[in-house]
Amino acid sequence: MTANARPYVEARAQKGLWAASRFLVLRRTSQLLFLALFLSGPLLGVWIAKGTLASSMTLGTLPLTDPFVLLQSLAARHWPEGLSVIGASIVLAAYLLFGGRTYCSWVCPLNPAADLAAWLRRRLNITFTAKIRPELRLYFVGAVLAASVLSGSIAWELINPVTALHRALVFGLWFGAGGTAAIFVFDLLVARHGWCGHLCPVGAFYGQIGKVALLRVTADNRAACNDCMDCFAVCPEPHVISPALRGERSGATPVITAGDCTVCGACIDVCSKQVFHLGLRGRNAVRPAPSMTAPSPVARVVSSQPTVLERDLS
Amino acid sequence: MSDSSSGIPRDPRRRKALQDMTRFGGGAAVAATMLTAFGVSSRAKPAQALRPPGALPEKDFLAACVRCGLCVRDCPYDTLKLADWADGPALGTPFFQARNVPCEMCDTIPCVKACPTGALQHALTDIAKAKMGVAVITSRETCLNLQGLRCDVCYRVCPAIDKAITLEVSHNARTTKHAIFEPVVHAEYCTGCGKCEKSCVLTESAIKVLPIEVAALKQDDHYKRGWEEKSKAGGALVDAPLKLPVRRPEGGSP
Description:
The structure holds two protein chains of two kinds. Helix content of chain A is 51%, strand content 6%. Chain A is mainly alpha-helical. Chain A has two domains: 16-209, no CATH class; 214-280. Chain A is globular. Chains A and B meet through strand 2, helix 3, helix 4, helix 7 and helix 8 of A and helix 2, helix 3 and helix 4 of B.
């Protein structure tokens, strides 16, 4: 696979700047919004969300707790009280609806650093990458849970660079940002998408939810694919694309069902042929061969219903 | 191993999968061991770092605290801090140092109420029953009161004055005509708020709040206090002294 150093050029030329960067802008907005919810209190005195991503209280009524942290707490033999159990259930339900690793690409404060490393990699044409198998992170999840049982403590939170960064940003504990700096260097020089795509146990945990989550990216217009490989160049988890995009002959579903997919929408942005759209698990219909009239991309995002509508109109 | 002899063809994919499992499993075991060691060592908390009121014992606390900082946010006096890498307590856990900012012992205990996991026990509703630590006169040589002077500051600022700290009067042998007003901490009433440590006038506080585990407070069960047992039983637990036979030489007189 030859990674294109500037994969977005074609999409921008054909779809316009907005359509070729829509999901990126939305994602950055979402990440900033989640941060702003926590920062408005300490900076402006307007308290919206208190706490950190491990556990928080929004507007004094909505408790949210990271289910992976709670799972480690259970492994460490602490029976948590009601509020954190309710909070973890809400988070679990939300990600079952909105796609598991959407946490990674829409909420996690570390994501911009990892994205920057990946972008620099393409620009600087750094092709060297250590081969780490994506499954390794599942073993890592097991290791974290085992360590929680053995040490009787919430083991991953002792070093978790994600919550450490969040505490750095929200509570001003700046040493906590060190892990993020290390990950940036690792991702840039050692392994492509090395941390988020191969090691992070938090992402691996949410990936398990992603295996059954409702919201997915679908290659429903795969008939239009011209094999430019741009989506593979920008995707943080390129192995999830092939089964859906190249599933034509085997009749496989165009929906990207793999839990590893972070629903970041980079493939949707970068594709000049508008092969990818947001969709739902189980909606396996594919679009017919490309028609002359290209429907507005906005309408496609809003729901996957237009698939039928467009076919009727054309 | 015995595949070839039993006639089942070797599947190279199975070999690869087994190799991967061994390799990844080994890596995971190393990671788990390192994390476990780190988790166990994180229990070692500096003595001067105190946990918020109602905190579980340190070992259970590390299993329960999710490092969310909600207690820190709801502390109205900015007493509580989250631990950074170099602070000593486990990363991200809440603590305070009495000499910097002591606990003001809010009646409503907002920090405990904010805790979502029960790492700060919600059963604590009376702040006077908190046990964040216990104050100890750590430097009898420098405490002004123990030199025969009248400082009394730790005694005066104590929220449980005359209960947690009392002044015990004794004879001043140095001057032979004055008294020594010794501040004495009564652990039963001390909450470990640290007001005394904060306000000690010396450069280095002569009274410090130490973790309960350090300033051991529980009498061993096998030591019974005779006078307490006697009052509990409502009378002497042993019979009156035995009447011993008088042993004197024959015919002798007392």
